[in-house]
């Protein structure tokens, strides 16, 4: 039987284990051990209330029994599309406990993207919220299930309304003893979603052993322990919020996770004061509103020790404002769901923290910075970042045709990030090699948006590029060649949303042009296009 993705060799796994670079426990076991050691400590705070470690572990057991009774079987994939609410954490760990494979999906994704992910992963169930903004996730999930015979269950956190979906609350079994673990450390734990340049979803296979190591090593690098109170501001399904160190790293270390229902500084500052939050994580696009609010808030932010910023490059000017204006230490984070995490050390000088994006997490992380021919570049020179290590994937899930493009023959992942590396190993992100826009930490495949543009009446050619933006990191600019007047941004937005695209993928700017420059082999020359258009 062909494996669904390439794995490290048995010899590599054994060497990583012997050196302590993989976990010998499942993610569910990490939670179970903390519940045994700290049963009465607060594990989770959400709009629904507070759960101790003992209560959280018991509720996970009860939900896991209900899921097993549906049945959801070990190894089956389940899409989890929930915002920052208690049910996300419960569903995540309950699925892990029965040996199923959660596929965390950002709630902001459009229905077309969710359906594509369900198809690619072979999902047997969808777990959605009863509402999200103005959308109706229940109705969307039911329609998707109707088109995909493999989706047997639609489960709703909240009321199912008049849909045939089943309420998640109805699955909780009566109180019972601990459920036996159904997975082993080297089994597939989660499928994470990657941005990419192919226009199709790429699923990242992460095992219990590598993701658990990622979480706990990150927790150590970030000073996380039982006294940590982590405020989850970004979507819980985001890898940054999950494991850098995120909710998995904090719960595995005995700390408290506080779920913030929205990223507004007013909401977040109130929770910092009420819960005594010590650590939180943001993308650069959120910082201006946080810094503005900090000047006028009456909330007590003195408990906040560390603010992590990642997802896209943080400019030095904003970085230097964080300490004086928010009263906490900045930690820059540069990572990817594919694996490699980098952190600025908590004891690093301010100049280093404000101007670099960190150092590799693990002593076993192998990092190369190479030129276009694959040759190493000297320290300080820009090049593409390649990486290999104990928690970095060796290939995508059910996408062997992409592996030759995304990995070197000896297993290094081509990140597509253009970086410089100092002699001491500090990385600075200077751009992207791959054809995608890194907008506020979300990777937008240019070809995917171009396909939407080309579907518009009268559009003959389209190209999407990223342009520097002080708040978003990059904004997306679409160049359109049309038979008549070019569509406006409002027209593009309406058309893309009708086609099921996520709102953040709508171009920030749409320009009509008479033609697009081409390379010698007939491809759009985006470098020349940027230069011609002054980007």
From TrEMBL:
Keywords noted in UniProt: Ligase
Domain AMP-dependent synthetase/ligase: 31-397
Top-level lineage group: Bacteria
Pfam families with a match to the protein in the record: AMP-binding, AMP-binding_C
AMP-binding enzyme C-terminal domain segment(s): 448-523
InterPro entries found in the cross-reference section: AMP-bd_C, AMP-bd_C_sf, AMP-binding_CS, AMP-dep_synth/lig_dom, ANL_N_sf, ATP-dep_AMP-bd_enzyme
GO MF annotation list: acid-thiol ligase activity
Protein name: 2,3-dihydroxybenzoate-AMP ligase
Source organism of the structure: Nocardiopsis flavescens
Species classification: Bacteria, Bacillati, Actinomycetota, Actinomycetes, Streptosporangiales
């Amino acid at each position: 039987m062909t494996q669904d993705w390439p794995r490290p060799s048995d010899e590599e796994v054994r060497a990583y284990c012997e050196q302590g670079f993989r976990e010998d426990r499942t993610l569910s076991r990490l939670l179970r051990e903390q519940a045994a050691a700290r049963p009465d400590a607060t594990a989770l705070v959400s709009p629904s209330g507070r759960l101790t470690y003992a209560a959280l572990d018991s509720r996970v057991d009860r939900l896991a029994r209900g899921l097993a009774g549906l049945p959801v079987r070990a190894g089956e994939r389940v899409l989890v599309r929930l915002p920052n609410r208690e049910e996300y954490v419960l569903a995540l760990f309950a699925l892990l406990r029965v040996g199923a494979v959660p596929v965390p999906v950002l709630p902001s994704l459009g229905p077309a993207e969710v359906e594509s992910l369900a198809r690619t992963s072979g999902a047997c169930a969808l777990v959605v919220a009863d509402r999200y903004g103005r959308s109706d996730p229940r109705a969307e999930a039911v329609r998707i299930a109707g088109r995909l015979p493999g989706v047997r269950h639609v489960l709703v956190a909240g009321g199912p309304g008049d849909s045939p979906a089943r309420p998640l609350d109805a699955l909780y079994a009566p109180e019972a003893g601990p459920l036996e673990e159904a997975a082993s450390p080297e089994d597939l734990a989660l499928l994470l979603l990657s941005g990419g340049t192919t226009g199709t979803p790429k699923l990242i296979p992460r095992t219990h052993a590598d993701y658990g190591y990622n979480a706990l090593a990150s927790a150590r690098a970030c000073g996380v322990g039982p006294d940590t109170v982590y405020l989850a501001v970004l979507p819980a399904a985001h890898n940054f919020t999950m494991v850098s160190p995120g909710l998995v790293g904090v719960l595995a270390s005995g700390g408290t996770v506080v779920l913030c229902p929205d990223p507004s500084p007013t909401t977040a500052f109130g929770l910092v004061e009420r819960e005594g939050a010590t650590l939180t994580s943001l993308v650069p696009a959120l910082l201006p509103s946080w810094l503005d609010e900090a000047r006028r808030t009456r909330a007590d932010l003195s408990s906040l020790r560390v603010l992590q910023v990642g997802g896209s490059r943080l400019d030095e000017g904003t970085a230097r404002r964080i300490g004086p204006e928010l009263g906490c230490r900045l930690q820059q984070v540069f990572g990817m769901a594919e694996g490699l995490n980098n952190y600025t050390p908590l004891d690093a000088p301010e100049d280093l923290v404000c101007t670099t994006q960190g150092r590799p997490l693990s002593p076993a992380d192998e990092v190369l910075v190479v030129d276009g021919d694959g040759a190493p570049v000297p320290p300080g020179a820009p090049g593409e970042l390649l990486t290999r290590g104990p928690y970095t994937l060796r290939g995508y899930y059910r996408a062997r045709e992409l592996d030759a493009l995304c990995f070197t023959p000896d297993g290094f992942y081509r990140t597509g990030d253009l970086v410089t590396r100092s002699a001491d190993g500090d990385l600075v992100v200077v751009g992207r090699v791959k054809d995608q826009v890194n907008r506020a930490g979300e990777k937008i495949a240019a070809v995917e948006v171009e396909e939407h543009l080309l579907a518009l009446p009268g559009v003959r050619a389209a190209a999407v590029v990223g342009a520097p933006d002080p708040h978003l990191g990059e904004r997306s600019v679409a160049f359109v060649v049309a038979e008549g007047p070019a569509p406006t941004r409002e027209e593009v937005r309406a058309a893309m949303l009708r086609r099921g695209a996520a709102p953040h993928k709508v171009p920030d700017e749409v320009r009509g042009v008479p033609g697009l420059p081409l390379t010698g082999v007939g491809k759009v020359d985006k470098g020349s296009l940027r230069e011609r258009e002054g980007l």
